[in-house]
Amino acid sequence: MRTLLVTGPGGSGRTAAAAGTALAAARQGHRTRVLSADRDDSLGAALGTATGPEPVTVAPHLTAVRVDPAAHSRAELLDLQDRAAGALDLLGAQRLEGEELTELPGADQLALLKALRKAAADDQLDLLVVDLPPTQQALALLALPAQLRRYLRRLLPPERQAARALRPMLAQLAGVPMPAQWLYETAAHLDEHLAAVQAVIEADTTAVRLVAEPGPAGADAVRTAATGLALHGLRTEALVANKALPADSADPWLAALIAQQQKAVAEWRGAGTAYEIHEVAHLGRDPRGIDDLASLGLPEVRTEPGPAPWPVDDRLADDGVLVWRIPLPGAVREELDLIRRGDELVVTAGPFRRVLALPSALRRCGVAGAGLRDDELAIRFAPDPELWPRGH
After folding, report:
1. pTM across the whole model
2. 3-class SS at 227?
3. How far apart are CA 7 and CA 338, in angstroms?
4. For residues 62 and 32, is the Cβ–Cβ distance under 8 A?
5. Are 29 and 61 in contact (CB under 8 A)?
6. CATH number, domain at 378?
């Protein structure tokens, strides 16, 4: 199954673009679902059909789901309480009831990730279109599974979990439950869930469709988004230049705005990007219903290979270094920062940061320098004589 993640700056028309894309795919005969976490049901407003946590049929081959963060938060807290029952009883804790639980911060993001995993596992679907929050929030959300798994590995190392087999015996000897047991089991359960979500996000069949209104603000937003998406290894499938005004308008008041939009679109088309640019006309109103969405003319999602692995160039013979090449379109040299921490590299590009596990060969090297050129970060590594095998 293909997964398309739709994001862009606030007010750019992301939800309508996601709904229109899903409709276009459904009309091609693909079994499609559009997924949103918007509390105001802007997805339902665009589709002309109210949406909720259960799939609702909007058109032939098209269903829609809007997650319920409050219900998800309650269910997760009650599940955690059940898993920790032994430890809580030992402490004399009073159980919480579902009716008294209120939604916790971050529930929207966690609920959307769980719904993403569930929908991706549905073999009755050909395409899942996800209406994500604005770009920076969306990237934080998409990076969350990998980050949380890293934290779990640091706080509860696998080698310590190997000792779980001894805990039942220790519990019998001590005569009381061992709280660490449920902790490791809960961590393993969470890691399994996060790994499944991460696999969907990083799959070759997953891509991103950016939505932006052409103009100076939209151009800046697209440039920043391109950097963040590339840093997190996500493939941009297309850019939707949304709410484009008609070039033949006779209204002199709109002339400057139209010229501004046309300049932005021309720059996007001339930038030599790997993704397509789709110009979508402004309807003069917010899209409402199937007919309006169809008139947007959004193209179906194309199936293409995922991003190529970041290569490591062997320049040992000539320069005595290995070079790791990381594509960072739109990155600014002054906003880049690198920190080596053990077998990891912390890369900061503008507002985005990612902790990268070094390829095995580079773990035996030290960072010898880095440079940004032609939208690519090249990091040079020199072999550590004490770690590098002789004769290599």
Report:
1. 0.87
2. helix
3. 27
4. yes
5. yes
6. 2.60.40.790
Amino acid 144: pLDDT: 92
Q: Please answer whether residues 186 and 80 qualify as being in contact, where contact means their C-beta atoms are separated by less than 8 angstroms.
A: yes
User: What per-residue confidence (pLDDT) applies to 111?
Assistant: 86
Q: Tell me, what's the pLDDT at 273?
A: 79
Kindly state whether residues 210 and 340 are assigned to the same domain: no
Domain extent at residue 144 = 2-70+103-154+198-295
pLDDT at 95: 72
Q: What is the CATH number of the domain that holds 283?
A: 3.40.50.300
* Helix, strand or coil, per DSSP, at residue 83: helix
* Integer Cα distance of 329 and 229 in angstroms: 9
Residue type, 93: A
pLDDT reported for residue 179: 47
Plot region of 83 (φ>0 → left; ψ -120 to 50 → alpha; else → beta) = alpha
Q: Domain check: are 244 and 144 in the same one?
A: yes
The CA-CA-CA angle for residues 26, 114, 55, to 5°, reads 40
Please report whether residue 97 resides in a domain: no
Identify whether 287 is part of a domain.
Answer: yes
In a domain, 243, yes or no: yes
What pLDDT is recorded for position 255?
87
Are 323 and 251 part of one and the same domain?
no
Task: Provide the residue count of the chain.
Answer: 392
Are the C-beta atoms of residues 31 and 57 closer than 8 Å to each other? Answer: no
* Cα distance between residue 359 and residue 363, in whole Å: 7
Closest CA to 167 of 142, 151, 185: 185
What residues in the chain have per-residue pLDDT under 70?
Answer: 70, 72-78, 80-81, 83-94, 96, 98-105, 158-182, 303-308, 389-392
Number of domains in the chain: 2
